[in-house]
Amino acid sequence: MSQVTNSSLSVNFIVLNIEMSPIRLFNFPYVVQREIMDSMDLQTVFLLSISSKRMNNLIVSVEKARFNKIKYILYNRFAHEDLTLRFRWNSTTSNESVFVNQVLESIQRHIDGLIGDTKECRLYFLTYGREFMLPKLRNVSGSYVFLLPSIDGKTLDDYCSASPNQDLLQVRPEITSRLKEDSAFFGMKCLEFSDPNSVVVPELLRKFTGRQAFTSTANLESSDVIKFLKKWKSNESFENLETLHVTLGYGSKRFNPAEIKNAIDIKHLDGSVNTAVYSCKRRMYSRTTRYSNN
Amino acid sequence: MSVEPEVPIVQVEEVRENPVLYKIISSDNHVFTISEHAVKLSKTLWDLITNLGLTAENALDNPIPVENVNGKNMETIVQFCERHKYDEEEPEYTNYIREFVLPEWDRQLLSIDNEELFQLILATNYLDIQKLMDYCCRVIGDMAKDKTPEELRIIYGIPTDAEDDALERSASDSPGPSG
């Protein structure tokens, strides 16, 4: 959760404050309470809101206008933007970390009561170890999932179904098993993932309904590429597609470009013919591209 | 031997100082003198002065009683206002974030115990001194930095849910004025 503090320091602080009389927030006039809350950052206001129900209700009342200005909620390790409510899980033991998904889900439930359930969320999830679960968060508009060493298809399916139609989903670990037939993964607006086992890319070429996809894989059959191109050309599918970038790994089986050209009837135009040009803004340029909020 | 021309020495402070002074009487009958620039930081006092029609000529003969503020707090407030009377007006803050650094002088001034700080804030609120209010609230807000909810409950005297429930029950069980 946000800002886990050193336990020995915390104990000292409590002793110090027992000796000093508390400054009772509830005893201040309403306008002063608002001034005090406004002087705190959002993370602190959030922590204050879980100190008691009554305090939570006060904050909902006092900080309503401020909460309306929150752009999005970021479940993240690093963030520098002001109007962002951000949470950083920085636990010290692996036992705590196993429950990170439950903690983040609880935080989201609490936020629902605090600032409403319509705020956009973003997730930056970076962790190591097989026992970690992805939190099932709603209203996620962008995710960066770095769950090492790998992620299985079901975990990814479950995560995507909780927040479909994301603007951007980046999945760094390799995906070890196939996704379900109607996976929400294929409906993300922009995807970036690696698929060394070639369990997702063939499906992507049949089901992708988003705008841009950037991926790398080991093998790709010519027949899959031909089917994809035919459907795209005929407007049968992929009507939203702007960019599809598939990088084949070293040593992968190479398909024959001539076979594909012949199959979909690619014509070469000479320079004298004016052709229509469509341009679109690419979300990614390489696999090393950083998380983009544009 | 050359004779240096006599150039009058004029201190900047003297030029800027406004000679108009006002007298304020605290609730415990302590009398304070405050300059016009300083008193303007308090919206309440300045409105009062304006409405009473106090001028440079009659200001000192008409002390202003402030019954809601005791001498101790008034002393702090007068010190603060005199210190900040020439500060440039700060722009309205936006986005609900107050980015300012609490000056060391003010941090020292506000290094008082919590009960005193509480009373000072009430006085500041009554006298409507925005800058002092900002600074006091920053001091209180800073107490929350890097604290857990449990620590925040202690710092800010927040009852637990169980304590609130018990209080509510006892309030509803107790007979009313007619009972």
TrEMBL record, chain A:
Domain of life: Eukaryota
Residue span, F-box domain: 22-70
Any one Pfam family match given in the protein's UniProt record, by short name: F-box
InterPro entries given in the database record: F-box_dom (IPR001810)
Descriptive protein name: F-box domain-containing protein
From TrEMBL, chain B:
Entry's family note: Belongs to the SKP1 family.
Any Gene Ontology biological process: ubiquitin-dependent protein catabolic process
Keyword Calcium: no
Residue intervals of the SKP1 component dimerisation domain: 130-166
Name of the protein: Skp1-related protein
InterPro entries (UniProt xref): SKP1, SKP1-like, SKP1-like_dim_sf, SKP1/BTB/POZ_sf, Skp1_comp_dimer, Skp1_comp_POZ
Residue intervals passing through the bilayer: none
Residue ranges of domain SKP1 component POZ in the record: 23-85
CDD domains recorded: BTB_POZ_SKP1
Keyword list, A-Z: Ubl conjugation pathway
